Amino acid sequence: MPSNMKKYLITSVTLGLITAGGALLIAGTNMLTRGTIEENKIKTINKGLSTIYGVDTLKTDPATLPEGKKFDYVINDYYVVKDEADAPLGYAFKTEGSNSYGKISLIVGFNADYIYKGVAVVLNEQSFASTLNKKYLNPLVKEGKTVDEVDVSCGATYGAKLVRSMVNSATNAAKYLKGANNG
Amino acid sequence: MAREKGFTKKNFLKGIIAENPLFVSILGTCPALATTKSLEAAIGMGLLFTFVLICSSVLVSLLRKIISEEIRTPAYIVIIATFVTIVKMFSNAFLPELYSTLGVFISLIVVNCIVLGRAEAYASKNGVFDSFIDALGMGVGYTLAIILMAFFRELLGTGGFTIGAVFPIVKEPLTLQIIPEDYAISMFQMPAGAFIVFGIILAVLAFIKNRKEELKAAQARAEKIRKAEEAKKAAAAAQAKATVEGGNK
Fold first, then answer.
1. What percent of chain B has pLDDT over 90?
2. Residue A22 located in a structural domain
3. Is some CB atom of chain A closer than 8 A to the CB atom of B96?
4. Closest Cα in chain A to B99
5. Which of A125, B125, B163, B223 could be bridged to B103 by S-S, CB 3.0 to 4.6 A?
6. Total structural domains within chain A
7. Average pLDDT of B136-146?
8. Interface contact flag, B75 A14, Cβ < 8 Å
9. Interface membership of A14 toward B (CB under 8 Å)
10. What backbone phi and psi angles, to 5 degrees, belong to B24?
11. Is residue A39 part of a domain?
12. From A29, which residue of chain B is nearest by alpha-carbon distance?
């Protein structure tokens, strides 16, 4: 075997082994943390829903929009939110979007009469992350507006345009659901 | 290899004071400017950063004889990226608030010049223990530096400190209001405020360093004058002695 070939082989094998070792470590960590990360996601969604609907404990049933209809940013599943006694509280739409500053995920809640209830941040990976906080989100849409009246306005934060588009999209999804449910 | 007495202490302290990565080498400024809005976020960033720095330095030092010259940089990047991914997963699972606050800046530790710089400049040439101490010193130095920045930014920007928003040490986050909220200058929470605080700290440190050097120079000058005077006196005494001896003869 030419000496160059041997050198290249050793170099490649070394780098390959380091990469394989790294992959194994990451896989092990993933096995350890995956369950907790999933639990955290559910907890964050429930916490967001509790904030929106003002109740400590609630139940959620994931559902799909009629005829598999899709809206930008809106995850196909929406949640039918109920209180502990199974009385319907409303519908919540999970939205996900990203711009050049990072990813945002919001939950937009409407009550059973499709009146806007509020919005909660589930994930905010925007750089300079905490610019997207309650202070900016609370006046986003005035509570009590119906899906036909919602007019989103928010401050000049980094994710303002994205947040506005996500809430508008969730509102359109709620409007569609209202139309479908009312026949 | 015999180690010079006090080497370990010096090796550790250099990262905190003489070679502080942020305030002296001006490295890792991007996360330092972005994650210093709150004291808790800065502490979190510092801890994650120190963990990655120590682990990657130790592993690079362990593998320094195996990693050939040609694959040095890709090998270091793979090692650092592995530890950053692990840290990211653990913080997402066990410190979700910290994960969400730091956002993309956890991933960006991969390309932090300090981590790659220590691997290249120190760990690849030194033993495991020395590399560990060097990484620990640099990590602690960087953490203290960003804590100092965060202290001023949070205090001036919000008027106080929030405890428990990032680390779940209390059930509900507590706000310690020191300056009335109306007098807080929110600009210090913005990127511009980060640059201003960073600039002021650098200026103060440069002032202290210059003062020290001036004092040292003044002391050296005084010593030189004193020695010259002593030499002059000795020469005069010798001349007087020679004159007396000449007279006697």
1. 64
2. no
3. yes
4. A125
5. A125
6. 1
7. 96
8. yes
9. yes
10. -105, -50
11. no
12. B86
Q: Which of B146, B159, B153 is nearest to B192 (CA)?
A: B153
B71 → closest Cβ in A15, A22, A129: A15
Nearest CA to B19 among B131, B202, B142? B142
Output the CA torsion A169→A171→A173→A179 (10° steps).
Answer: -150
A10 and chain B: CB distance < 8 Å anywhere? yes
B74 neighbourhood in chain A, CB within 8 Å = 15
Which residues of chain B does A14 touch, with a Cβ-Cβ cutoff of 8 Å? Answer: 66-68, 71, 75
A25 touches chain B (CB under 8 A): yes
Asked, for residue A141, whether it belongs to a domain, the answer is yes
What angle do the packed helices B191-248 and B128-158 form, to 10 degrees? 120
Query: CA-CA distance, B55 to B59, in Å (whole number)?
Result: 6
Question: Has the ipTM of the complex gone over 0.85?
Answer: no
Q: What is the mean pLDDT of residues A159-163?
A: 71
Residue-range definition of the domain harbouring residue A94 = 44-181
What percentage of chain A carries pLDDT values higher than 90? 16
Distances in whole angstroms, Cα of residue B178 to Cα of each of B35, B37, B38, B141, B162? 21, 16, 14, 27, 11
Which has the closest alpha carbon to B157: B139, B127, B179, B172?
B179
